[in-house]
Design a protein that fits this description.
The complex is a heterodimer of chains A (88) and B (99).
Chain A lengths: L1 H24 L3 H26 L2 H29 L3
Helix pairs in contact in A: 1-2, 2-3
Chain B lengths: L1 H24 L3 H27 L3 H30 L11
Helix pairs in contact in B: 1-2, 2-3
Classes of the chains: A mainly alpha (88), B mainly alpha (99).
């Protein structure tokens, strides 16, 4: 069971690399914003799986709730700003 | 219970891998947003519900379902706002050019 969860953790970290490619490479700013959204979703899942791996879910869940609020609301603020102003 | 946990985790990882391939391969922002907002949310659903079933009834299950509800409220709103901004700033959706 430990080995399976460790493989899941490594696979999630590799998947973050694909989104990081899009953030660095993306032609427009909207690609970068969507990549940021995907990375924050992956990070939330990564924290919860890490909690199951270390058998301390109650602590890691609180960290992931804070992470979700900070990152997703930040991305939403940038998206609404671009929606009002158009491209700078 | 362990078998159910592993089935949910593997299904979630499948959808996340499909979403990552779509993010790298698809041609423009309008088609990439399908991979990011749709397939990604489905993968997160399978993974988090699998872990919640593994934890059993209690405080931890409630908190995990709260994170899932937060993701499902905020993820579509972000994708919608970003794409409306892209459309208003004059990007044209990608079309396969006809010969």
């Amino acid at each position: 069971m430990k080995t399976f969860l460790f493989c899941v953790l490594v696979l999630l970290a590799i998947l973050i690399g694909a989104y990081l490619f899009r953030v660095l490479q993306g032609p427009t700013i909207f690609d970068r914003l969507l990549g940021h959204n995907g990375i924050s979703t992956k990070a939330i899942i990564l924290l919860i799986v890490m909690g199951v791996y270390f058998e301390r879910v109650d602590m890691f869940i609180d960290i992931s709730i804070g992470y979700a609020l900070l990152n997703l609301v930040g991305a939403l603020a940038v998206a609404k700003y671009l929606e009002q102003k158009g491209l700078p | 219970m362990d078998i159910l946990f592993i089935i949910f985790i593997v299904a979630g990882l499948f959808f996340l891998i499909v979403a990552a391939i779509g993010v790298v391969r698809l041609p423009d922002v309008f088609s990439r947003s399908h991979a990011i907002s749709l397939a990604d949310s489905l993968g997160a659903f399978f993974l988090l519900v699998g872990i919640a079933l593994h934890e059993g009834l209690g405080k931890n299950m409630l908190k995990i379902l709260m994170v899932l509800a937060l993701l499902y409220i905020l993820n579509p709103v972000i994708a919608h706002a970003t794409l409306r901004a892209a459309l208003r700033s004059g990007l044209k959706p990608w079309q396969k050019e006809t010969p």
